[in-house]
Amino acid sequence: MSDYNWCHGTNCHQQHTQSRVRGSGDNKVLRTIKIKLGTEWIRNSIYAYFCNQRCLMDFMNEHRDRIVALAPRREALETPIKVEKEKYESYRYRHNGTDYQRVPYQATRTTIKGVDNG
Ligand SMILES: [Zn+2]
User: Fold this and answer.
1) Could you tell me the distance, in angstroms and rounded to a whole number, from the CA of residue 35 to the centre of ligand 1?
2) What is the pLDDT of residues 64-87, one digit of tens each?
3) Which residue spans within 33-99 are E strands per DSSP?
4) Which of 45, 73, 74, 92 has the fewest Cβ atoms within 10 Å of its own Cβ atom?
């Protein structure tokens, strides 16, 4: 196993950054970023293959049809939940021309809770 990957971003080698410049004199190029796989985090991450989010999204956009074909979704998934609403005292600030005034009001907090299906 090599200790690096080349970034898979389709346009990585066209981004104008100093870190991509290689060569000397009149023979300079922009080169794809070499990703060092020096940590366990990077080896287990999508960023083992992409130097940044732009390169990841360029790749996703270019290959999206084949990527979604790996695990097609033909119907919606659902997660059972309980929605709880609770009233509580809160405050808002009203400007009275010169100053802000703290005004109490009855607020509603909505909480989505998972349902144990065990
Ligand atoms: Zn890249």
Assistant:
1) 9
2) 999 999 999 999 999 999 999 999
3) 34-36, 81-95
4) 74
CA of 111 to the centre of ligand 1 (A): 40
Backbone angles phi, psi at 102, to 5 degrees: -80, 120
**Share above pLDDT 70 across residues of the chain, in percent, rounded to a whole number:** 97
**pTM of the full structure:** 0.72
Cβ atoms 10, 56 nearer than 8 A: no
How many whole angstroms from 54 Cα to the centroid of ligand 1?
7
* Integer angstrom CA distances of residue 94 from 60, 101, 104, 107, 108: 47, 5, 10, 16, 19
Residues, CB within 5 angstroms of ligand 1 (ion): 7, 9, 12, 33, 51, 55
